[in-house]
Each structure stands twice: as structure tokens, then as C-alpha cells.
């Protein structure tokens, strides 16, 4: 089985700081993979490398067997990688539905001419199709009933779910979730757990960064651990939990409780 | 018959009406790049100028029919905008704003020095030979601009622009090619400014590069901010008020511009989001008509 | 010839720099393009002219009066037109600034009329000094000297005093500075006062240099000074000085080699070119994408 996403010695430096240092990582098709590590370990930076926000200083990144290192973010997104953000980045002034419709951007093709010829059947058909896709994605995270609310008026947990719906509207092969459970109460987390499992069941590979250990252990097929920009472990949840390097770097405090 | 009707209107009043029409075209044009895409342009008068001179020269030198002139001057302005847009739209925020301002000053000074634009003397433009009277043409173009703006705002293209305005990083992560959309928005915006300029030139019959200075750009910006940034009714309203205000304040003669300036400050202090900012007109109209705005959505949900 | 033009350029550039400092300081602290700054400059010139012409004050006293007047004016403008908008969108505050600018220039038009007024000759009896083949006027030396003194004092205030430290903290991070007990309102007023004082001095100097003071002198000078601030990297004080000098010198040389009719475009052409190479100006900080 070839990896869907492959990081090969991926490295990025900001001035003197090596934020991500020679990380090798595979995400297999159809799995739920998690990336954990202490604050500032470089987890979000890895997501930013994958999605092209920062180009890697060294090393390669390939997706579906093709190199995507150094490509523009919009090209990478169009290639089938959707993502959410650690600090929620919704289009705040727009409605919930519009947010998801923007996520479905790459699924449409009519541009300026389409806008001016809005009333012609092919344009209307496409709009209808995008609308259906958007509603479908919203119902996947149970937000369809809030379609016409303004995004910034949603409660925090729902904003996180809206980000997931927006990323799903890309119809991605791989979805990157950056701390999806942050700020949620236990009940919301439980709902989210089911949603993420359903997303995987629908054929989307999931790669997530998360702080909540219970959430990660219960959800992931595999876990990679990052510390000071270096990958220190990689394996099944129980292997990672037993790994001495991980306990020292990260779980140490938790394990002594 | 139409001509007769137009002639029966008080010419002074007619002049104000045409000013409002042209104001609406210009304001909606600027609204595309500044209101919808969030890129502050402080030099939009330059595009008006390019359109005005392109139109005037087409009429004077080639005798192109007016309607074709109107479209060609818009297209030419859009091409100019796309050309300068490629390099400068990479800049962010106020750096972009000052660059557009600089570009506008350069255009003004170049036109003041070119032989073909008749230097500082400006150009006299003969009235166009058209079946429709000029005010009617302005009205039609203004309505077309309103329709086009509304269509753009609620389309895949317009959503991409709004996404760029709200959050560029999130927008590009959704697969939106930011550079391309910005240039396109700039070009559409300039097209409208160019046609507005062309109408202005032919209605007024005389243009001078100095007419399209920084203050003209500021006028356009004030229209969309006073009305409510990003709102089409806001832009129409702002353009109407500001095009007419100096005329209605005329009785105060010398105090006019002072009052105008003070009004701008007070309006901003008491309604910082513009007069019509934050009002959703589609919802309002639909509710008045008794249509539930969520009807379309319900049908879709039932289908699934 | 070269030296002559260089001195001309530096004299003109110092006045741009004086005005540009006000733009850059205000921008650094509240991210507002204080569009009325050009009108403060104009007001400074008029006050200086009145002091010299009507009250027969000596030029330095007149300049001091103009600076004090404009300090108060800057603080009042901020209080009325910008402070209520601090939490609103930046564009609203910008439009408000344009309103202030329109108001002030039309007020000046009403009070002083449309014609430009000159400084009386006895204001500063300028003499020509020959250095090599260059003829330099003592007025130019005065302009350069006064600008240098003012800029050094500004640098001292910003770097060495307590309020200067508060200014730097506020421009670094407005909210954190407020949390750490910096009286942000005072700092903002102080910044407006400082910037306005410099603009007033610039106004008096420019009024003498071109021997013309008029209601609309603020517009083009303001635009060019703003361009200078952006050229240097907006928010950066040394950047504004560098930008002002650079624009002044290039403008003078541009005119000297025969592009006098393009005078007003030169500054902007340079600005656009520099921004294309360095998108945040010469000394501006690089913006890192924060995700």
C-alpha cells in the first residue's frame, strides 16, 4: 500500500529557528492518523507545510505520489487536501452556507462570465449542484439548520464543526484537522468523535493534530509524536503510549499522575 | 418622444440626475474591489480618467459609434488595470492603497504632458450621435451596473472575492487563486470606472486630466463607505447623496465644503458602518413579500 | 552643480521628512492614515505667517507658536474625529480623516482667501553663500538645521524618555501595552501632538522656502510626505526620515535633468518601484504570515 501523503525529511527554518527538522511521515489511505506533541513542537507548522502556506526549506512532500512541495496553497487544496485551522478562520461576515459554498469553490468552474450570465441554465445547474453539496457537508456536521446564520454568531464548538464542513466541501481525499476538539465540552467531543469516524467511513483520510489524549487515543489508528520539531515516535496508540521517549518528552507529567 | 420628455425636465435637475447616475456606476465599480474584495484603492479616479480619455479620443479621432466607444473604453481601462494589477496587487493593505494613489498621480501627470490628451488644455468632446438622449443612456448603464453587481455578489466568483476579503489564508486553503481573483476583480472594477468616465466625458463635453485627481478618488470612496461598505444599496444610496449633496448645499455657497467635511466626520462617528451598513435587503424585501427566505433550502433538505 | 542640487534636494527632503514623521508615528500606533495631517501642516504655515506678519515675531518664536497651536489642533482632531472610531473599521476612521481634511482646507479658504501669501522679506533675510561652484542660501541651511535639531529631539524623546518607551510599547502591541498599565489614550494624544508639532515646523519652513502659503498646500505636500513614510516603511521613524530625504533629492534631480513637468509624478514613481521590490518599504518590517 502506498502512502497517500508522504513527508520526506521535511524541514523549515524561520531565521535561526528550526521549527520542523527532518520529519519523515506517512499517512496511509483510509486511516485516521494523529500528530501529537507539546506546545510549540511544530505540529501546526507541519500542516502549514503540507498545505503550502509555508514552502519547506528542505525535503519533499508528496501527495498521491506527486510532489506538492512549494506549490501554491490553492493548487494543493484543489488537488484534494482540505484543512481546518487551530485559530478558527471562518469567513466571519458571511453566512454558514456561504462559508461552505466557498469551500466548494474547486467543485465549480463558472467564473466571471458565470456571474454575469447567472440566469442561464448551465450556470444555475452548477449553483444548484454546489448548493446541494454544501447542504450535504453541513448535515455531516449537523449544522444544516443553521445555514442562514452569520458564521461569527455561532457558538465556539459549532464554529469548529463549520470549519470541518467547509473543508469537506472541497471533497478532499485527505482532511487535516488542526485541534478539532479544542474548547469543546466532553459531550461535544463525543459527538465530534462520531463525526470524524463517519468522515473516514465516507472515504476521506483523516490527519489530525490534537491535544486531548483521551480523544486521540480513542480515535486514531496511528499516532506520530513531535518534539522540538523532530519526530520522536510513530506507531499504534498503545505503542506510542509505551514509548519511553514519548513518556519523557510529553506524557511524562501525565503518566506520573 | 423620449427626447421630448428629457427636454421637458429642468436642465439643472437633469444635470444632477446624470451626476447621480455616473456616481452610481463609479461607486459600484469601486465597491467590487474595495467593498467586495477588501482591497483599498485610493486611485480609482485614474481609471475613470483612462476611460474618459480613451472614449473621447475614439470619438474624436476615429468616429467610432458611441455604444461601441463605451464598451471599448471600458475594456481598454480593464486591460490597463489588469496590467498594473499583476504586480501591485501582491502588496497588502495600506501599501496597496498608496500604490494605487501613486499610480493615479502618475496617470494624471502623464496625461497633463501628453500631446494626444492635449496636455493641460484638456479635450472638448462633441455630443454623441445617438438615438437615445444621453441622460437615458446613463440611466440604462447605471441599471445594468446595478444588475451586474448584484449578479457578481451572489455568484461563485463573488463568493471567492468575499472570501479573500474576510481571510486570505483561509481563502487560498479553499482552493481560491487569490492573485488571479484580485486581478479579475480589479479589472471588472476598472471596466465600470472606465465606462463611467466615458459617459462623463461625453455628457460634460469637456475633460481635463486635473478633473481626475486624488479628490475624485476620495469622492468615490466616500460614496461606498458612507452608504455601507460592500452593500449595493449602500453604494447606490451613498452615490446619490454625495452626487447631489454639493448641489443641495449650494445655498450655503462658501460654507458648502466645510459643512460637507463636517458631515462626513459626524456620519462616521455616529454610523461607522455607513448609513445602510448591516442591513440585509434581500431578507427585508422577501419578508415584505411574504416569502420565507429559507424556502429554497427546505426543498433541498426534503430531497435528501 | 551636483552639490548645489544635492543641497536643494536635502532641504526639500527634510521638510518632507518632518511631515512624514507625523504620518508614520500615528500609523505606527493606531494604524490610521491621518489624512488631515497635510492640513495641520498648512495650518502651521498660516500661524507662522501670522506671527511674523502681524505680530512681528522673530522666525523662531513664530515657529514655536505654530508648533504649539498645531499640537493642540492635532490633539483636538484626534479627540473629536478619531477617538470615537477607534473600535470601528479602519476605513471609517480614514473617511473621518478625509472629512476633517476637507473641513480644514475649506475653512482656510474662507478665512485666508484663495491666493497664496508670501512671507515678508524681513522674516529671514536670506543670503547666498558660495561653496565651490554651488550657491547655497542661508535659508536652506536654516531648513536643514532646524529639521535636524527637531529630528534628533524626536529620536531622544522616543528612545530615552518614559513616554517614548510607552509610545514604542503601544506601537508594538496596543492591547498588551494597555494591559501593562500604559495610559494608551495619553500616548495617542501625545503622538498626535508630537507629529503635529513637526508638521507645523515643516509648514513654516516650506512657506519660507517657496515663499507661498495657501489653503491647498496641504494636499500635495501631505500626499508626498505620506509616500515618503511608506517608502521608508510605514511605522518606522528612521524610515520616514530616509524616505523624505530620498524623495526630496530625487525630485530635485529629476527636475534638474529636465523633467520639471513630471515633478509631482517622480515621488510616486519611485514609491511604486520601491514597493514592487520591497513590499513593506525600505526599512519596514517583513510581514510574516501568521496562521
TrEMBL record, chain A:
GO terms for biological process: D-alanine transmembrane transport; L-alanine transport; L-isoleucine import across plasma membrane; L-valine import across plasma membrane. Keywords: ATP-binding, Nucleotide-binding, Transport. GO terms for molecular function: ATP binding; ATP hydrolysis activity; L-isoleucine transmembrane transporter activity; L-phenylalanine transmembrane transporter activity; L-valine transmembrane transporter activity. GO terms for cellular component: plasma membrane. It comes from the Bacteria. InterPro entries: AAA+_ATPase, ABC_AA/LPS_Transport, ABC_transporter-like_ATP-bd, BCA_ABC_TP_C, P-loop_NTPase. Residues 5-253 form the ABC transporter domain. PANTHER family: AMINO ACID ABC TRANSPORTER ATP-BINDING PROTEIN, CONSERVED COMPONENT OF ABC TRANSPORTER FOR NATURAL AMINO ACIDS-RELATED. This is ABC transporter ATP-binding protein.
Automatic annotation (TrEMBL), chain B:
Keywords: Cell membrane, Membrane, Transmembrane, Transmembrane helix. It holds the Pfam family BPD_transp_2. Its main location: membrane. It is found in: Cell membrane. GO terms for cellular component: plasma membrane. InterPro entries: ABC_transp_permease, LivM-like. The chain crosses the membrane at residues 12-33, 40-60, 66-88, 134-152, 183-203, 223-245, 257-279. It is a multi-pass membrane protein. One of its GO terms (molecular function) is branched-chain amino acid transmembrane transporter activity. It comes from the Bacteria. This is Branched-chain amino acid ABC transporter permease.
UniProtKB/TrEMBL annotation, chain C:
GO terms for molecular function: L-isoleucine transmembrane transporter activity; L-leucine transmembrane transporter activity; L-phenylalanine transmembrane transporter activity; L-valine transmembrane transporter activity. The chain crosses the membrane at residues 6-33, 40-55, 61-81, 93-116, 136-158, 179-206, 265-284. Keywords: Amino-acid transport, Cell inner membrane, Cell membrane, Membrane, Transmembrane, Transmembrane helix, Transport. It is found in: Cell membrane. One of its GO terms (cellular component) is plasma membrane. One of its GO terms (biological process) is L-isoleucine import across plasma membrane. The keyword Electron transport does not apply. It is a multi-pass membrane protein. This is Branched-chain amino acid ABC transporter permease. It comes from Oryzomonas japonica.
Amino acid at each position: 500500500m502506498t502512502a497517500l501523503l508522504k513527508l520526506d525529511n521535511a524541514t523549515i527554518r524561520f531565521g535561526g529557528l528550526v521549527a520542523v527538522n527532518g520529519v519523515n511521515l506517512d499517512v496511509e489511505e483510509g486511516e485516521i492518523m494523529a500528530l501529537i506533541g507539546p506546545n510549540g513542537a511544530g505540529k501546526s507548522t507541519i500542516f502549514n507545510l503540507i498545505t503550502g502556506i509555508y514552502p519547506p526549506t528542505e525535503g519533499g512532500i508528496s501527495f498521491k505520489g506527486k510532489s506538492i512541495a512549494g506549490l501554491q496553497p490553492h493548487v494543493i487544496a484543489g488537488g484534494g487536501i482540505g484543512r481546518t485551522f487551530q485559530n478558527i478562520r471562518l469567513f466571519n461576515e458571511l453566512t454558514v452556507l456561504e462559508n461552505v459554498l466557498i469551500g466548494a469553490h474547486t467543485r465549480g468552474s463558472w467564473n466571471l462570465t458565470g456571474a454575469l450570465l447567472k440566469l442561464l441554465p448551465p450556470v444555475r445547474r452548477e449553483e444548484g449542484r454546489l448548493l446541494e453539496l454544501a447542504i450535504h457537508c453541513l448535515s455531516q456536521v449537523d449544522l444544516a439548520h443553521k445555514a442562514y446564520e452569520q458564521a461569527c454568531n455561532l457558538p465556539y464548538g459549532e464554529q469548529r464543526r463549520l470549519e470541518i464542513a467547509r473543508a469537506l466541501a472541497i471533497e478532499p481525499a485527505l482532511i487535516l484537522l488542526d485541534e478539532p476538539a479544542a474548547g469543546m465540552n466532553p459531550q461535544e467531543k463525543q459527538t465530534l468523535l462520531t463525526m470524524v469516524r463517519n468522515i473516514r467511513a465516507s472515504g476521506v483520510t483523516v490527519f489530525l493534530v490534537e491535544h486531548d489524549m483521551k480523544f486521540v487515543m480513542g480515535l486514531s489508528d496511528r499516532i506520530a509524536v513531535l518534539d522540538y520539531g523532530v519526530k520522536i515516535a510513530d506507531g499504534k496508540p498503545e505503542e506510542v503510549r509505551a514509548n519511553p521517549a514519548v513518556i519523557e518528552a510529553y506524557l511524562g507529567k501525565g503518566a506520573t499522575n | 418622444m423620449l427626447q421630448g420628455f428629457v427636454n421637458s425636465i429642468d436642465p439643472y435637475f437633469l444635470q444632477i440626475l446624470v451626476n447621480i447616475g455616473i456616481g452610481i456606476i463609479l461607486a459600484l465599480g469601486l465597491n467590487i474591489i474595495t467593498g467586495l474584495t477588501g482591497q483599498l484603492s485610493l486611485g480609482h479616479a485614474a481609471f475613470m480618467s483612462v476611460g474618459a480619455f480613451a472614449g473621447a479620443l475614439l470619438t474624436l479621432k476615429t468616429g467610432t459609434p458611441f455604444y461601441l466607444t463605451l464598451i471599448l473604453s471600458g475594456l481598454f481601462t480593464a486591460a490597463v488595470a489588469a496590467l498594473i494589477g499583476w504586480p501591485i496587487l501582491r502588496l497588502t493593505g495600506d501599501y496597496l492603497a498608496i500604490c494605487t494613489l501613486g499610480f493615479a498621480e502618475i496617470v494624471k501627470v502623464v496625461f497633463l504632458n501628453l500631446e494626444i490628451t492635449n496636455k493641460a488644455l484638456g479635450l472638448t468632446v462633441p455630443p454623441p450621435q445617438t438615438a437615445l438622449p444621453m441622460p437615458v443612456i446613463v440611466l440604462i448603464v447605471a441599471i445594468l451596473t446595478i444588475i451586474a453587481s448584484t449578479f457578481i455578489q451572489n455568484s461563485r466568483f463573488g463568493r471567492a472575492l468575499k472570501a479573500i476579503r474576510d481571510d486570505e489564508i483561509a481563502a487560498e486553503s479553499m482552493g481560491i487563486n487569490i492573485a488571479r481573483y484580485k486581478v479579475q476583480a480589479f479589472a471588472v472594477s476598472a471596466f465600470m470606472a472606465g465606462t463611467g468616465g466615458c459617459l462623463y466625458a461625453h455628457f460634460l463635453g469637456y475633460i481635463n486630466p486635473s478633473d481626475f485627481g486624488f479628490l475624485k478618488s476620495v469622492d468615490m470612496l466616500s460614496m461606498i463607505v458612507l452608504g455601507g461598505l460592500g452593500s449595493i444599496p449602500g453604494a447606490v444610496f451613498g452615490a446619490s447623496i454625495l452626487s447631489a449633496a454639493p448641489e443641495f448645499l449650494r445655498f450655503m455657497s462658501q460654507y458648502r465644503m466645510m459643512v460637507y467635511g463636517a458631515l462626513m466626520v459626524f456620519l462616521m462617528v455616529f454610523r461607522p458602518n455607513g448609513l445602510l451598513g448591516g442591513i440585509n435587503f434581500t431578507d427585508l424585501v422577501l419578508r415584505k413579500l411574504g416569502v420565507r427566505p429559507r424556502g429554497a433550502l427546505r426543498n433541498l433538505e426534503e430531497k435528501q | 552643480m551636483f552639490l548645489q542640487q544635492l543641497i536643494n534636494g536635502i532641504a526639500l527632503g527634510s521638510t518632507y521628512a518632518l511631515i512624514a514623521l507625523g504620518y508614520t508615528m500615528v500609523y505606527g500606533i493606531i494604524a490610521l492614515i491621518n489624512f488631515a495631517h497635510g492640513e495641520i501642516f498648512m495650518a502651521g504655515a498660516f500661524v507662522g505667517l501670522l506671527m511674523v506678519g502681524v505680530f512681528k515675531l522673530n522666525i523662531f518664536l513664530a515657529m514655536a507658536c505654530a508648533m504649539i497651536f498645531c499640537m493642540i489642533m492635532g490633539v483636538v482632531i484626534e479627540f473629536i474625529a478619531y477617538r470615537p472610531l477607534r473600535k470601528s473599521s479602519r476605513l471609517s476612521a480614514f473617511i473621518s480623516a478625509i472629512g476633517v481634511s476637507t473641513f480644514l482646507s475649506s475653512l482656510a479658504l474662507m478665512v485666508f482667501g484663495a491666493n497664496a501669501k508670501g512671507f515678508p522679506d524681513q522674516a529671514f533675510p536670506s543670503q547666498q553663500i558660495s561653496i565651490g561652484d554651488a550657491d547655497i542660501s542661508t535659508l536652506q541651511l536654516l531648513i536643514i538645521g532646524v529639521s535636524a535639531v527637531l529630528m534628533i529631539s524626536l529620536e531622544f524623546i522616543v528612545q530615552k524618555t518614559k513616554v517614548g518607551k510607552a509610545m514604542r510599547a503601544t506601537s508594538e502591541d496596543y492591547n498588551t501595552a494597555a494591559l501593562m498599565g500604559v495610559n494608551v489614550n495619553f500616548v495617542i494624544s501625545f503622538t498626535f501632538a508630537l507629529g503635529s508639532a513637526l508638521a507645523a515646523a515643516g509648514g513654516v519652513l516650506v512657506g519660507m522656502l517657496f515663499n507661498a502659503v495657501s489653503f491647498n498646500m496641504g494636499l500635495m505636500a501631505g500626499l508626498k510626505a505620506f509616500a515618503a513614510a511608506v517608502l521608508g516603511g510605514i511605522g518606522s521613524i528612521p524610515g520616514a526620515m530616509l524616505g523624505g530625504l530620498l524623495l526630496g533629492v530625487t525630485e530635485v534631480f529629476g527636475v534638474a535633468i529636465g523633467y520639471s513637468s513630471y515633478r509631482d509624478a517622480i515621488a510616486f514613481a519611485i514609491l511604486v518601484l520601491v514597493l514592487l521590490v520591497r513590499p513593506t518599504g525600505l526599512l519596514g518590517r517583513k510581514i510574516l504570515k501568521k496562521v
